[in-house]
Design brief:
Radius of gyration: 26 Å
Strand order of the largest sheet: 2-1-3-4-5-11
Strand content: 15-25%
CATH architecture of the largest domain: 3-Layer(aba) Sandwich
Helix content: 25-40%
CATH superfamily of the largest domain: Response regulator
Number of strands: 12
CATH topology of the largest domain: Rossmann fold
Number of domains: 3
Structural class: alpha/beta
CATH class of the largest domain: Alpha Beta
């Protein structure tokens, strides 16, 4: 064990450097403790010269205000919880990357919980122990009974990809049924009428909406699905579902509830059948993740506009923080059909 002065070991907490406090800054600058707090609050009144002295002293000592302590004094912590259940889903991973970057640019500090489905209640309750300004929830990552816990703590909720009817909760969602309706129209115009549907978990509202867009549009044209398989939104699940659906020779088109499954289906057709895409089998995805436009895939898909989605999430966040009692708002985003090489 390494020896340290005064007989302390390096494992001894008493030997560790102490974090510089506001009291240290106040003593060095010759001001009150409250003056230090006001110096770091741009909305608080403080003599300009005194503020400059305090800030220079803070830099010299290596002091930064404690966001958690500031929140106990009624100030915003700028901490935002972000719940994203399935980071293996590329759309959700791209959503998380852009959202975290945009939050940081707005001087807000995300606490990210996710990476697997389902997100455990213990993990969410642990995050709720912090003085969050708000919580952003992606898709179906939060059980409904936890809404009450957030409400009791006065933590606003912003939902992306899911419509929730809860007080003081705001939502941003794509018009899913409209997107898959466009995809069906495209395939019908291209001469593909024997359509199969590869869906995600049937309990997800986004999948139910995308399926309804397919079935209603087919019905309007006097048709119905030749086959349907509910999968798990994964590449592997898409390949397995394609194998099942294409066992029926009537299937000449696949509508997939997300791009990962569409890419899995595309891989299965190319590597395990003698069929060609799009002549024998057309494939359409949903989301327009970055991989979809790569030349090796060139996937026809329905864009779930990521930038617009995050713009609206952040707008709703700022509006809710400015007026916590404002009525709940739901924003519906229009999908965009991206025609490429698989139809």
């Amino acid at each position: 064990m390494t020896k340290t002065p005064a007989g302390h070991s390096e494992a001894d907490p008493a030997s560790r450097p102490r974090r510089v406090t506001a009291s240290d800054v106040a003593k060095q600058a010759g001001v009150s403790r409250s003056a230090v707090s006001r110096a770091f609050d741009p909305n608080a009144y403080l003599d300009r010269h005194k503020r400059e002295i305090i800030l220079k002293t803070a830099v010299k000592l290596g002091y930064r205000p404690n966001a958690l302590a500031a929140s106990l004094q009624g100030m915003r912590s700028n901490l935002v919880g972000v719940i994203i259940g399935d980071m293996t889903n590329q759309y959700d991973a791209e959503f998380a990357a852009m959202l975290l970057s945009r939050l940081n640019a707005a001087n807000k500090w995300p606490l990210l919980v996710g990476g697997s489905m389902p997100v455990t209640e213990e993990a969410i309750m642990a995050v709720l122990g912090y003085p969050l300004d708000a919580m952003i929830v992606r898709g179906g990552s939060l059980d409904a009974h936890l809404f009450d816990d957030c409400a009791k703590l006065n933590i606003p909720l912003i939902f992306s990809g899911r419509i929730v009817d809860a007080p003081f909760a705001d939502c941003v969602c794509c018009r899913n049924a409209e997107g898959t309706a466009q995809a069906v129209d495209l395939l019908l115009r291209s001469g593909h009428k024997g359509l199969g549907y590869i869906g995600g978990p049937g309990t997800w509202s986004s999948d139910r909406e995308r399926l309804s867009g397919v079935t209603s549009t087919l019905a309007q044209n006097g048709l119905s699905l030749v086959g349907q398989v509910q999968s798990d939104f994964s590449y592997e699940g898409g390949a397995q579902a394609a194998a099942s659906l294409l066992a029926d020779d009537r299937v000449d088109g696949l509508i997939c509830a997300n791009d990962a499954m569409a890419l899995g289906a595309l891989s299965y057709v190319r590597n395990h059948t003698s069929k060609t895409v799009p002549d024998d089998v057309a494939i359409v995805g949903f989301d327009d993740v970055s991989l979809a436009s790569w030349p090796d895939f060139n996937l026809t898909t329905v864009r779930n506009p990521l930038g617009t989605m995050i713009d609206e999430v952040l707008r709703l966040l700022e509006a809710r923080l400015a007026d916590p009692m404002r009525l709940s708002e739901t924003v519906m985003i229009n999908p965009i059909l991206k025609e490429r090489g698989t139809h």
